[in-house]
Amino acid sequence: MTTAESYYPNEPTTPKVVTSEIPGPNSVAQIKQLGEHFDSRCAYFVVDYNKSNGNYIVDADSNVYLDLYAQIASIALGYNNPKLIELLSTQEMKNALVNRPASGNFPAVELDATLQKVLQVAPKGQNQVWSGLSGSDANELAIKAAFMYYAQKKRGGDTVPFTEEELSSVMDNQSPGAPSFSVLSFRKAFHGRLFASGSCTCSKPIHKLDLPAFDWPHAEYPAYAYPLDTPENVAANKIEDDRCLKIVEDLIVSWKSPVAALLIEPIQSEGGDNHASAYFLQRLRDITLKHDVVYIIDEVQTGLGATGKLWCHEYADIQPPVDLVTFSKKCQSAGYWFHDPLMVPNKPYRQFNTWCGDTARMLIFGTIGQEIIDNDLVSQVSRVGEYLFAKLEILQTQYPESFKNLRGKGRGTFIAWDLPTGELREKLLKILKSNGCNVGGCAEKSVRLRPTLTFDEKHADIFIDALTKSVSQLNN
């Protein structure tokens, strides 16, 4: 019995599309109704979450889709997971939901046990955690922690007191109390839609138009030739890595304000599923150490098993470990991991808010993490990803124009490919829905697969059948 069968004995066996158009008439009517008091323009269809089960999502018109998008990569175990439903009846969850502790001032007696459970799935080399509310918030908090850490080191250590000039100037948003530090991020990156995170985001203009932004540098992210393992591509991709690394170091040295932190996704997800090699990620560590820059890995979308390891950057075995790793999405919580005790600010209330995250979401995170460990779901993702990628390679030989730059080999089910144009990509995604598969895109013309961790070979076979039919329809 597979994990999906164990969790979801009543999971549908096949997709079922009953409307001629998607969204169907019920979804269209409800989207229109929502639009009267909520911005519903981004809705693909309206979901009946009561009927959704396991790896299948059901819409308001009773269309049943195999879901390879999973709430924008944020559902780890599947819909209506019994272990998470069981958690709802515990006293710890009742306290977290009804009394919502202000954890910084009034932590619950069970908080340490919750954190210990979460720390079971921490990245290698990280042993402390700070909780947040969303992926954007996680990156904002990590940037804030990096700035305080950087300033503390420049000041001479955590025991050196603030000067009167620092204390007075910060009240007017002026230096030295409000220093002009910067964060180096990468073109095509997506780190969120807030202010510090928005200044680091560089995927689509719509994410940050009309927002005041920090004047921070963006380096080039490597653009590799695929497949990765041919001799000519290995050589070309090493040259590309070195080209981008030189840009990074030149920016750190020359930027108008001190670069306090470097922020990078191990795979740029929203920006097009662009992968960074182990060599690139390790050399960034060397550069950040050389120039005393805080190294932050954004694992909001890649984290918690999606790539066949708990954390994608672990493929690179970066030494020494990076300074901060942010998380959200599949964790159903948010925050950052760290290991240096000096990353905790030297004074209380500097990294603080009313709830210091959300203990209810941390309880869910802990349960998800335990289920991943108990069922060895990371190994399953790796196995199923290998199975799925091999089938996609066969399709690529049949339809090379519809499977350009197929990537994600050896990265679990975190797989993507390009269509010749954005218009064709959108057409393929629409056809896939009509054939019973909910799939997402990224960047201008990429298709990305983001199934749950319980997605297995039988689901892969159903998807490949639907994809084969859809690509054939696209090309006819």
Automatic annotation (TrEMBL):
One Pfam family linked to the record: Aminotran_3
Segments crossing the lipid bilayer: none
Enzyme Commission no: 2.6.1.19
Top-rank taxon, per record: Eukaryota
Reported cofactor(s): pyridoxal 5'-phosphate
InterPro entries given in the database record: 4NH2But_aminotransferase_euk, Aminotrans_3, Aminotrans_3_PPA_site, PyrdxlP-dep_Trfase, PyrdxlP-dep_Trfase_major, PyrdxlP-dep_Trfase_small
PROSITE patterns cross-referenced by the UniProt entry: AA_TRANSFER_CLASS_3
Listed GO MF terms: 4-aminobutyrate:2-oxoglutarate transaminase activity; pyridoxal phosphate binding
Cellular-component GO terms for this entry: mitochondrion
One of the GO BP terms on file: gamma-aminobutyric acid catabolic process
Signal peptide bounds: none
Catalytic activity line of the entry: 4-aminobutanoate + 2-oxoglutarate = succinate semialdehyde + L-glutamate
Keywords recorded for this protein, A-Z: Aminotransferase, Pyridoxal phosphate, Transferase
Record-linked PANTHER family: 4-AMINOBUTYRATE AMINOTRANSFERASE, MITOCHONDRIAL, AMINOTRANSFERASE
Entry-linked NCBIfam families: GABAtrns_euk (TIGR00699)
Family classification: Belongs to the class-III pyridoxal-phosphate-dependent aminotransferase family.
Protein name: 4-aminobutyrate aminotransferase
Organism phylogeny: Eukaryota, Fungi, Dikarya, Ascomycota, Saccharomycotina
